[in-house]
């Protein structure tokens, strides 16, 4: 038996590495197990998020957006440019450099905080023992007082479109294209599909998105989702709702996709096909016999409100448990669990977890949509303010979108905030803080916001709940 630890974390993604660092900061002897190996054969930390998810996709999104701005919008600002072109190889190299810097940064944080890094594949055995199989196939068993499972998730495969090298790919493969496909198909018009479709549409692809659902972005407030659909289709994304893929075939280095929609059976040919139909928890070969850890019918590890499994001293966090599959959700769960192990009283407010779609304009929300609030029995009042009435948005040449505040009419408590617009992913933090402190719309309305800023739209939307927005025609004139 190898060394015994106070805490062993299985997985070094945004949930796992944060949990490990926090536990070590609290004085607990901590180890973190990670199997991810990069292109150079070196074990790296950061999980899906840093290696093939959040970070590389945002690098490509930002680069492609700047390209479109320079090509199509700078002229409106009086900036004359010509012959704007995109160097795909350089864009990819920069993306890889950003990933390398950040994954290396986590390794440095482990050393600085005294976290023991264990390379290999972790497997939980009974009595909180962790078996780690190294890249050489040799196994070693470690013992811990507490184990935190943070193994994350992987893309869902679908039988009608099995992966093929470089032609039919998942979200990870879509980050590695070395040239712009002329015809790009995307199965799934959710968050990941929209972001990846946006990248390659900006760079010149003809993008067709096949979404099986009849409703676009059903998790988003209906008013915001309609505006999002309008903005993205205007940019050239061909989003086909109610399109269920039934099969695919590779012919002459092309992909022929068969699907059904309201018009019957359809067929379309693409140069590349991305499958983005969701993610599933990664629990493959994770649990040995007698661990006491239970999975639900969808493969998620069953945990309570503070992420403890039914096995004493064993916790699970992030994508492998219930709740939204969001990196920041996993990170905060990691902090909570480390604090609890240390003996602190800690909890998470799952009502105030923000979500962001990093298209342009960005889409962000926290809390309930208007439809969900009504379904939950609230008497709802809303306030909406368009960025077209924002001085800063006009100056930025970014007047698309709006801010929407959803409140409980009887208490004025903010139930949710929904934004589509430039920097929505940054603006939503104001709403998260407001909801964390149980704010009312009046609290936001009485807060002084800097001028001129995009954040003033949040202020005006809160004022609009009672019909008192200053920079928009109002329905009510008196308090």
UniProtKB/TrEMBL annotation:
Its main location: cytoplasm. The active site is a redox-active disulfide bond. It catalyses: N(6)-[(R)-dihydrolipoyl]-L-lysyl-[protein] + NAD(+) = N(6)-[(R)-lipoyl]-L-lysyl-[protein] + NADH + H(+). GO terms for biological process: 2-oxoglutarate metabolic process. FAD binds at residues 58, 122, 151-153, 319, 325-328. One of its GO terms (cellular component) is cytoplasm. It comes from Kushneria phosphatilytica. Keywords: Cytoplasm, Disulfide bond, FAD, Flavoprotein, NAD, Nucleotide-binding, Oxidoreductase, Redox-active center. Its EC number is 1.8.1.4. NCBIfam families: lipoamide_DH. The active site is at residue 451. It is found in: Cytoplasm. It comes from the Bacteria. Its cofactor is FAD. NAD(+) binds at residues 188-195, 211, 278. GO terms for molecular function: dihydrolipoyl dehydrogenase (NADH) activity; flavin adenine dinucleotide binding. This is Dihydrolipoyl dehydrogenase. InterPro entries: Class-I_Pyr_Nuc-Dis_Oxidored, FAD/NAD-bd_sf, FAD/NAD-binding_dom, FAD/NAD-linked_Rdtase_dimer_sf, Lipoamide_DH, Pyr_nuc-diS_OxRdtase, Pyr_nucl-diS_OxRdtase_dimer, Pyr_OxRdtase_I_AS. Belongs to the class-I pyridine nucleotide-disulfide oxidoreductase family. Binds 1 FAD per subunit. Disulfide bonds join 49-54.
